[in-house]
Amino acid sequence: MAEADENPQTPVIPNPRDEVTSSSHPDDNGAFSPEDFLDSVAARISSQPLDNSDPAVWGALTAISDIACKRHQGINILLTSDEHCIGRLVDDMHFQIESNAVSANHCRIYRKKGAAEDAESPSTFSTFLKDTSTNGTYFNWEKLTTTSPEAKLHHGDIISFAAPPQHELAVAFVFREVSTSDSLNDGALVKRKADEIVSERKRLKSVGIGAPEGPSLYDFQSPQRSNTDDASTQCSKVGSEPVMDYSSEFTTHKIFKSREALLQWVRDVGRRNGFFVVINKSDAGDSCKRPRITFGCERSGYLRDRRRNKEGNSKKQLKMFGTKKCGCPFALKGQKLDTDDDWVLQVLCGVHNHPIAEHLVGHSYAGRLSEEETSMLVDMSKSLVRPKEILVTLKQRDALNATTMKTIYDAHHRYKFVEKARRSQMQLLLDQIVQYKYIERHRSCENSEIVTDLFWAHPVGLELLRAFPRVLIMDCTYKTNRYRLPLLEIVGVTSTEMTFSVAFAYLQQEQEDNYTWALGVLRSLMDECALPDVIVSEREMDLMNAIDSVFPTTRHLLCRWHINKDVMAKCKKSFETEDKWDKFINQWNMVVLSSTEGEYIQQLATFNKEFSTYPEALEYVTSSWLDTYKNRFVAAWTDTCMHCGNATTNRAEGSHTKLKRQLGSSQGSFESSWTKIHSLIELQHADIKSSFEKSLTIQHNLKPIEFKDLWGRISASALDMLLVEMKRASFVGCDVFACGCVIRRTYGLPCAHEIADYMRDGRSVPLYVIHAHWRKLDLVPTPKSSTIDCQSELDLIAQHFNGCDSTTKLQILKKLRELVTSADCTSLTQQKVKSKTQGQKNSKIDTSTHRDPSASELVAHGQDSHADVTAAIPEASVKPTWRPKEKVYRTRTLKSILYVDAFPARLRPYFRYVKDVAADGNCGFRVIGGLMGFGEEGWLQVRKDLLSELHSHEDLYRQLYGTQDRVDGLIHTLSNFEVCPGYDWWMIMPDMGHLISSCYNVVLCHLSLKQCLTFLPLRSEPIPASSRKEITIGFVNDNHFVEVFLLPGHPIPPIATNWHRYHIPCAEGWDTAYNHRIQHFQDIVGSDVVTRETVELELKNGN
C-alpha cells in the first residue's frame, strides 16, 4: 500500500488472494451476495481519496464493472466542469460509453454551490445526478428514471448505467470526491520536472488510468470461501486455486409447484451468475422413495477417453478433440414432497473451481435453441430461408440470444435427418410429388433402378395449360443439379401476358429420344384439351425433330434472339470496324422484320448489294438461316400465326434466371432442387391469379366509350394493345393496306382499321371479335364426365400382357407396381454425381449456376473480332490481352439479356443491347460513368460532378425541387463516397435526371416498366441534333440501374415537366427536335407507363 500513500489519486486494486475486508458483510452461510461484493469493492476504492493534484478536477467516476473497465479512455472519468453529460453519443469523447445498452445522452452529473452548515466556513458544493435516458440509471441499487427527482451524490456512491450494478451488462462506477490539501487551498501548485511527469504517466497507465483496456472486475474478486468446514471444501479438487461459493444464491425455502418450475428457477439463477446448471442424475422414485433430481455444473465430472478401444489402443481421430469438464464440485438436489407435485431444493455444494463465463455467445448450453426457436427454425427452413438469416431473426427477437451459426447448422441438419427418415433421395422426391399431387413420369435403365429421365408438372400448371394452350416456349438450362443433367423447362403465356411453368424434365442427354419421350408425356396430358398453335424454341436439331414428331400440326418458330447471337458469333470477325458491323446487323434486322414477302425480297436485295464485299457473312446467313428456316423466324411468315408476340425464347430465359436464383447452387439433389422449384411455382401461381383479379377491375385509363363492352371481360393487357391500335386508327383510318392487320393475325385482336370502322359507325367494339385467349380470366377447368371408368384400359393392358414374353411381363408388372405402391417403397435411385473429366483436377466444387459462355458472348465481351470464336475457352489463369484502341461495344451477358424483359414490350425491338454494371449501391453512378466514357469505375467522379453541379446552381434546383429539404436530401445522397453505400445513398430517379443532363450537357432517357422520362439541359443553348449526345439509363427489378443502348432514331419518352417550367430562356429549343419521336413513343408504349415526374392520385369516397 506504499504506492497508494504516495499517489492516492490512483486506486489500489484489491488482490484476488487477499482476505475479504471487514467492510464486507457475509450472510449467515458465509457466502457473499453480488450486492455485498460490489459494495465491498466500492468501499475499498472510495477509501483511497483522490487528491486534487489538478485544480480543475473536483471528482471522478472509477469503473467497477467488467464493461466499464474496458473503456479505451481508461477506468477513470475525471469531472472538471460544473456539469457533465455522460452517454453513448455525447460530444466530449472522454465521457462517451460505447455500449448499445447506454442511451445517447444517458445522464447529467453536476454540482451546485450551497451555504455551509457552519456560518464561518466558506460555501461548499453539492453534487447531483439526473437521469436523461430511456432505460434508467441505477443509483445505489435504486433505479432512477427521467421522471425521478435529482439524486444527491456522496463519496462512495455506486452509479450504474442500463442495468443493476451486479448484472453482466452493467456499466458501473463508484463516485469519488477530491480531497483538498492545505497547499492546494493556498493556490500553490506543485511544479514537476519533465522526467517526473513521464514516470507518473507510466505509473498511472500501469494501474489502468488511461490504459486502452482497464482491469477486469475479476481483479477485485477475492476468494470467498465458506466459513464452515463442510462437504464444499472436501469435494473440491482444485487444491490452492481460488473457488467461488454460490450457496447463498441457491439457498431458498421456496416450494416449487412442479418439476418444470424447479428446473426453470435453477437454470435462471445459474445463468444470472454466469454458469449453467444441468441435470446430472434423475430418479423417478418408487413406492419406497420419492423422486429426486441431482443438479450439477456443466463442467462437473471428467472426460471419459473414448479415443481408446477396449484393448487400450488409440483410435483414429477425424477432428479436433477436447473437453470443458474440470471436475467442478457444484451440486444441488431437488426432491419431491408428498403433497401434490411440490418440490424443494437443497444445496449440496455451492463451490465452483473455475471462473464464471465472461461471454455467453458461443457457449454450447447458452446457445441451445428453445422449443419455440426450434419450431421457428423448421418453419423458416421450409420457407427456404438461409441459415444466416434465421440466426439474424432469432437475435432480433431476443437480444440476449447466444446462438451461433454452428448451432443453426446442427439444428437444420437434425431437422433434415428426421424428415429424411432413412429414405433415399428418390423416395423423398416421389413422396413430396405425391403429397402435392404432381404429375410425375420417369424412365430408368433397363438393367438397374437408376433414373435417367424425370418429368413432373404442377396440377395448377396443367390447369393453366388447359386454359391457355396457344403458345408454348421450350428451352433447356444447365448447371441446376449435382448430376449435371440438363433441365428442360416448358412455359406458356396467360391472357394477362404472364409466364407460367407447364412442366420440367431432367434429361439424361439432349438427344431426340429424350426430347421425344418428354414431349410425348406432355402430349398425353393434353389429350382432352386443345393442342398448342405455336411452339417457340432454339435451333436444336434433336428438339426440332422431336417437336415435329409429337406435334406435327403445330407451327414451330425459332428464337430470333438466338439467331442474332449466332450471326454475331460467325460474322463479326469478317468486319474490320464497328461501324461496318453495326450497319450489317441493322440491315439484317430489317430483313428479319420485313412485314410482307415483297418487302422481304426488296430488303434482301438491298442487303446483298450493300454487303457484297463480305461474301462469307452473306453465305452464312443465307445458307444457314434464310434458305432453310426463313418461314420460322422472318416476320413476313411468322406474323401469319397467332404467337401473341412471342418470337423469342426470352420468357423461358427469364424463367431460367428466376429458377437459378432460387436454387442458389448447382450442387443440389433432385429432392432439394424440386423443393425450391415448387416454392417458386407456388409464388408464380399467386401472381397470375392476382393479375386475373386486376383485369376484372376497370382501370380509369382504359375507359374509352368504344371499349365499354370489353370492360372487366378481357385482360388489361389486351385493352392496352387496343388503346394503341385506337390511336393508330386516327391516322390509318379504314385503309386495310396502311393498317397491315398484324395485331389481328398475331394476337387475335381488332386492328386499327377495324376499330376505325366501329368508331365511324358510332359503335363500341363487340366482345365476340376478341379471341377467346384474351377473354379467359380464370382457371375453371374444361368440363369433364362425372364418372371415369378404367375397365376398358385394364382389359387392354391384360390383353397386351398375355401376349408378351416373360421379360416384358416383368417390366409391365414393375411399372404397375410403381403406380400403386408407396413412394417410400420404391427401389429407384438417383444417378451418380458427375464431375468434369477434362483439365486439371480442382478440389473446389463449382456451385455456380451460371452457364458457360457461348461463342457469341466471347465475341461480345471484347474478344478480337478476327479471332476464331470456335477456339477453346481460355483458362481462368490466363489474363486477357487489353487493347486500348479497341472499343468494347457489345457487352452482353445472360443477365443483361434478360434485363431486356424489364422494359416496355413494344419498345424492345429498338434495343441493341443492355450492359450490366456492378450491383454495389453505386450502380446508377457506374452507369453514368460508363455512358459518359469514364468507365464503370468512374462512379466516384460522377458523384463529385453532380454534387458540384448542385452546389453551383442551388437556387435553380431549389425552385425546381420545390423545397430546400429535397436539395439537402440530394446533397446528403451524393456526399457518400464509400464503395458499398447503404440504401439512403443510392441514385434517385427521376430527381437526379435534371442534374445529370445539365451537368454533362446531354439528352438523358430514363426507362423502366413503371416510368419513362427524357431530361434535357436546363441552362445551355441547344446544339445541332447531329452533335447531341443521347444516353439511356434503365431501371430494372426495382433496385438496379443498367446501361441501355438503342437503335438510331428510337422513340423517346416525353420530356420531364419540370424542364418546361424551370429551364433558363437560353435553353429554349432543345425539345423541338424530339416531338416526332415522343409521339412515336406514346403510340407504341401506350398509357401503362408513367411519363410524368409526379403522379396525381384520384381519390374518391369509399376507396
From TrEMBL:
InterPro entries noted in UniProt: AFT (IPR014842), FHA_dom (IPR000253), MULE_transposase_dom (IPR018289), SMAD_FHA_dom_sf (IPR008984), Zinc_finger_SWIM (IPR052579)
Source organism superkingdom: Eukaryota
Gene3D superfamilies, sorted: 2.60.200.20
GO BP terms in the entry: cellular response to iron ion starvation; positive regulation of transcription by RNA polymerase II
Biased composition (Basic and acidic residues): 16-28, 843-854
Transmembrane segments: none
Polar residues bias locations: 219-237, 831-842
GO MF term (any one): DNA-binding transcription factor activity, RNA polymerase II-specific
Annotated stretches, region: Disordered: 1-34, 208-238, 831-854
CDD domains per record: OTU
Domain FHA: 84-144
Official protein name in the record: PKS-NRPS hybrid synthetase
Native species: Actinidia chinensis var. chinensis (Chinese soft-hair kiwi)
